[in-house]
Amino acid sequence: MPADLKKNSKLGKVDLLIIAISILGMVIMAYLTYLKFTSGKSSFCDFGEGVSCSAVNQSVYSTFFGIPVAILGFLYFAAVSGIIFNGVAGAYPLILLMTVASLVFSLYLSYAEVFLLKTVCVLCETSKVLMVLIGGLAFWKTRSVKVKIMTNWLVGAILVGVLGIGLSYFTQKGFTPTKNYDDFARCLTEKGWTEYGTFWCPNCGRQKLMFGDSFQYLEYVECDPRGDNPQTDRCLIRDIEKTPTWIRESEDNSTELERQIGVQSLEKLSELSGCPLPE
C-alpha cells in the first residue's frame, strides 16, 4: 500500500469528522471572501434589515488590519484540516488552543454585529458554531489520549484572542461617532434631506455608522422590498440606481430639489443643508 494511503488510513472517525467540518467552514469562508470583494451585490442570506450577510461582511468590522476576517477564517479551517490530515504531533491540543483564541476574538465580531451594525450574519455565526464543534472534538480527543491541558496554555490562547480584540477596537474606533448628532439629524430632516438606501448596501452601512444612534432621526427610505418598511415605489419614482443617494425634496416630497450620490461626510451634509454640526 502506498505510504500516503497508509497515512490516510490511520485517520479515525473523529478525525474525518473534524476534516469534514473544516471543509464546510472553508466553503463558507470562501463565499464570504467572494462577497467581501463584490460590494454592491446582495447575498442569498440577506433576509432583512436585522439579518444580512452582506451588511456585516462588507462593513468596516469585517477586516483586521486590512485583511478580510473571512480570509483569516479560511486559513483557520484550512490549518485545522491540514494538521489532522498530516498527523501533526500534538494535533488535538494545538487545534484546541487555536480554536479558543479564534473564538475569543470572534466575540468582538458578534458584539459588532448585534450592538453596532444591528444586523446578524447567519454564515458568520454558523462558522462560529463549526469552530465550537471542532474545539469540542479536539478537547474530547485530547482527554481521551490523556494529554494534560496546561492552564497557562489556555490562558495564553485567551490572551491572544483578547489582543486581537484590542487591536481591532483601536483600528476601528474612528468609525464610531464620538458626539451626539441628534439635533444635526433632525435638522437634515427638517431641511428636506432624505437618504435612499438598502439594508445590505455596505456604503449605506458606513453612512449609518457616522450618525450612530442619531440615525433614527433621519428621513431614510428603504429601497429593497426585503428590508424593514420598504418604499420601493418611492425609489422607482426617484430613479434610484446607486445607494446611498441623498435627495433634498419639497415639503410634500413631490419635487426633487437636489441630489448627492454616494457616502457624504457630515461636513459635506452640513455645508449642503446649513445645519450646524455639534461642537
From TrEMBL:
Membrane topology according to the record: Multi-pass membrane protein
GO MF annotation terms: oxidoreductase activity; quinone binding
InterPro entries assigned to the protein according to its UniProt record, in alphabetical order: VKOR (IPR012932), VKOR/LTO1 (IPR044698), VKOR_sf (IPR038354)
Localization annotation: Membrane
Limits of the Vitamin K epoxide reductase domain: 11-142
Transmembrane segments: 16-34, 64-85, 92-109, 152-170
Domain of life according to the entry: Bacteria
Entry annotated with the keyword NADP: no
A Pfam family this chain is assigned to: VKOR
Gene3D superfamilies, A to Z: Glutaredoxin, VKOR domain
One GO CC term, this protein: membrane
Keywords: Disulfide bond, Membrane, Oxidoreductase, Quinone, Redox-active center, Transmembrane, Transmembrane helix
PANTHER family: VITAMIN K EPOXIDE REDUCTASE DOMAIN-CONTAINING PROTEIN, VKC DOMAIN-CONTAINING PROTEIN
UniProt similarity note: Belongs to the VKOR family.
Protein name (database record): Vitamin K epoxide reductase domain-containing protein
